[in-house]
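Fold it.
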Amino acid sequence: MGKTSGKKLTIAKGKQKPIRLSLSDKRSVRTQFGALPFRIHDGKVEILLITSRGTGRWIIPKGWPMDGETPAGAAATEAYEEAGVEGKLFHQVLGFYAYDKGHAGEKLPCVVAVFPLKVKKQLKSYPEKHERRRKWVSLKKAGQMVSEPELRQIIKDFDPKALR
């Protein structure tokens, strides 16, 4: 094993393969894929956060694996549906964070793999526009607004110059 800085996590070497799921697997695989939508505004990195539908807390767009889609592709789809943004997708995992998802009165422990998405287009109309708010904030402010400690650390460590 070589030295690892912890900064360049990847799921696997090479090109991501689409996931194949049966419908019964979809919810038992408690892994989700999230997008960290970012832009450079006046020379500073900004992160787009959205509110959750249930509690209204600040989160990043994320969702379940999608049949026939790569993990990063699923994250990009969630960014479009939940935050109304499109852009350059990176297949590089920034990190992982855990949270409990409320589902049918139960708490499902979930792990989210986070992929960066450089926002090129912000849409006025998108599927969950009337269910969520979205807000561009500085890296520091984004770290203060999210409640999951590992996500806070991913945001704090985020450096778009390290992306390939």
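The helical segments are 71-83, 139-145, 149-157.
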